[in-house]
Amino acid sequence: xxxxxxxxxxxxxxxxxxxxxxxxxxxxxxxxxxxxxxxxxxxxxxxxxxxxxxxxxxxxxxxxxxxxxxxxxxxxxxxxxxxxxxxxxxxxxxxxxxxxxxxxxxxxxxxxxxxxxxxxxxxxxxxxxxxxxxxxxxxxxxxxxxxxxxxxxxxxxxxxxxxxxxxxxxxxxxxxxxxxxxxxxxxxxxxxxxxxxxxxxxxxxxxxxxxxxxxxxxxxxxxxxxxxxxxxxxxxxxxxxxxxxxxxxxxxxxxxxxxxxxxxxxxxxxxxxxxxxxxxxxxxxxxxxxxxxxxxxxxxxxxxxxxxxxxxxxxxxxxxxxxxxxxxxxxxxxxxxxxxxxxxxxxxxxxxxxxxxx
Length: 358
Ligand code: SAM
Ligand code: SF4
Description:
The chain is α/β, with parallel strands linked by helices. It has helices spanning about 70-80, 100-110, 130-140, 155-160, 165-180, 200-210, 235-245, 310-315, 320-335, 355, and strands spanning about 35-40, 85-90, 120-125, 145-150, 185-190, 210-215, 250, 260-265, 270-275, 285-290, 295, 305.
């Protein structure tokens, strides 16, 4: 794969702008988008080294002292829920590597929104260790799971993730299928000459596990900066390939979801495509991100971060809730109408995907 040079953008200091409102008001940006979804990255560490996400060696890990504690995550989540966040999606890195993962789920699941409604707790995982911990996660309040699996071929899996752990991932998917958690979603990044001949097999695999398959267009977020637009597999190509096997009909009513969906032969099964590059869905984006080291981000592709650590660690007490709310509002106020990855001047964020939280 030929690499294109990408300049790493420096971390930009926090801007002073602040979205309208105060603690307890919804998080509405200057384009009218109401934010309801917070992606919470629990660690930048991972049990795999997927080529599109992490380097094989020499990754610069986040400082251990800057990783948010359980109490800090809970505190941020309480303020976010008061401001109208209804879904917390736990991610990473690999969220199941976090030793206190069950307690994180339990604490967040106990949070309620402004009218006392429970929040929704979801997780994106590579599935390794899932079989072991899933009963405890469900007991703690986990409601939904997305599991990543790019190939069903053991050698390919080893090449792609640089680890020989396909069996562990399959065990995790089997455990998820046997659990009551639905909808269950399986994610694959579609890659040319890597897994683009497996798209139909992956959909059939998902169906046989009571899951929905979703294909993701590869995005310029790999730590190695090797993304090459001319080689990426597009949504159109994915749909063309699947159309040779099924009749696809678009499912209406996407409602801000990243995946556009199609029924297979009239349903009930569906397939999803997350086409961030060729069909961006920024106009309906309701997501914010919290990195494992306490940085709020308003977009995967942004180079601006809003640092919660000084607020969390300087005051040591309750008055900081207004500070957390203020930082959430600044982050929302700074959100641009869309990402700029199709702009020739686009600068890839300094963090790799594992340190942002997908
Ligand atoms: N480790 C977990 C996993 O793999 O599901 C959670 C974190 S991972 C960063 C979240 C999602 O981001 C995965 O579905 C992964 O395939 C996707 N992802 C990572 N790098 C990507 C890239 N460069 N382009 C598109 N998707 C990517
Ligand atoms: Fe790990 Fe997930 Fe990144 Fe793969 S995509 S290296 S499993 S964080």
